[in-house]
Amino acid sequence: MAKTVVFVLMMVISLSFLWIANVQGKTSFIVLGDWGYNSSHQAKVAKAMGEWAEANNARFVLTVGDNFYNEGVSSLTDPLWNTLYRDVYVDPSLNITWYACLGNHDHYWGNAIYQVKAHQTVDWRWYMPNLYYTFEIQDHEGDQVTIEFIVADTENCKSKMQMKWMKKAITRSSADWTIAVGHHPVLSSGKHGSTPTMYSSSSYRKAMEEEKVAFYFSGHDHSLEHISHSNRPTEYVISGSGSKLYDRSEESLQDVVDKGYTSEFFESTPGFVGVTIHNNVANVTFVDKGGNVIYWFLKENPRAAAI
Ligand SMILES: [Fe+2]
Ligand SMILES: [Zn+2]
């Protein structure tokens, strides 16, 4: 009898350690785009996000812009803060920091500044210290892995200053993982398609691929998509279906193919992307509004692979 009790106790203790190691060594987050629009999809996506965040112990939400339709927020007391944000993303598991990125709709009438002014004030979760910024996440005690996010304001990517900042931030990053974030997709087979200024010459794309940036997360096209290149390190992930939907464009797809890239997955369905990073491997999961995993892939940290 005593032996059985000791055995059970030992099992419980070792399982607890395994569980703690498992949770501590991981960083999970949600990528949500083009979401601040009151539709029947928005509430369902919010519910699915809450469930995923709880199941995966999500540490933060990363928005990829078009946070408030149609013209951003016009003040710190704009009712849209409640109707499109606070009243919708109510699951307790979404009571985590929201690192926010600006989209073209957020910029109307110079309104983007109100999302910056709202930084950790209008709602403690809202994190936007500037129009564009970087932040670093340190993994829990487990792995000691650092992940740097470079959050660009791509509505201004025609401006030389913004392009210069983005390139500098990418080349300067010395974190274990470097991840770039912006509203406009560098590559997309959706309605808007790829963004020429970000793709071309002394470009954002080139800097990301040279510096082994693992992911570029974007929105703007209202779909979920994964684009990759067989011998380039950056994965292009679009999470733009937080509320609205666009179909694929055959012309945009042809352009992606002509550039030598492959659209590994495309779906015009409401949803979001969930990411879990554990040491040098990331698991990227595409989830629809019903909470179903509709696609996933694993990515090895290209920086670690190069060592
Ligand atoms: Fe949008
Ligand atoms: Zn947009």
From TrEMBL:
InterPro entries: Calcineurin-like_PHP, Metallo-depent_PP-like, Metallophosphoesterase_PAP. Residues 1-25 form the signal peptide. It holds the Pfam family Metallophos. Keywords: Hydrolase, Signal. This is Purple acid phosphatase 17. GO terms for molecular function: hydrolase activity. PANTHER family: TARTRATE-RESISTANT ACID PHOSPHATASE TYPE 5. It comes from Lingula anatina.
